[in-house]
Write a structure and sequence with these properties.
alpha+beta, SH3 type barrels, 2 domains, 5 strands, about 25% strand
Length: about 110
Amino acid sequence: MNILFENAWAQSSGSGSTFLGFLPLVVIFIVFYFLLIRPQSKKQKEHKEMISSLIVGNEVITAGGILGKIVAIKEQYVVIEISEGVRVKAQRHTIGALMPKGTIKKG
C-alpha cells in the first residue's frame, strides 16, 4: 500500500510565513487604490461639484459632444441653446465640462 501513496508531511506554518503569503495581495490592493480607485473617486467628486455650480449663461459641452449655452436650469435638467433659436433639454449629469466664456463665438 505504501507503494502507491507517498507519505504527506504537513508543512509547519509560522506567523512570518503567513504574513509573507498575504504581502503580495496587500501590495496589489495598495497599487489599485492609488492608481484606480482614488483618482476615480476624486474625478467623481469634481464632476458633482461642477454640476452643482452650473448657472444660466455657462457655456458647456455635454457627454455627447454638444456645445451650447445654458438658458434654463431645473432640478434634474438643463436647457441648452446650441444655435440661435435651437434649444435642447439634457440631464444635468450629462454635462461633461464647463467651457471658457466666448468658446461658442470662436468655434
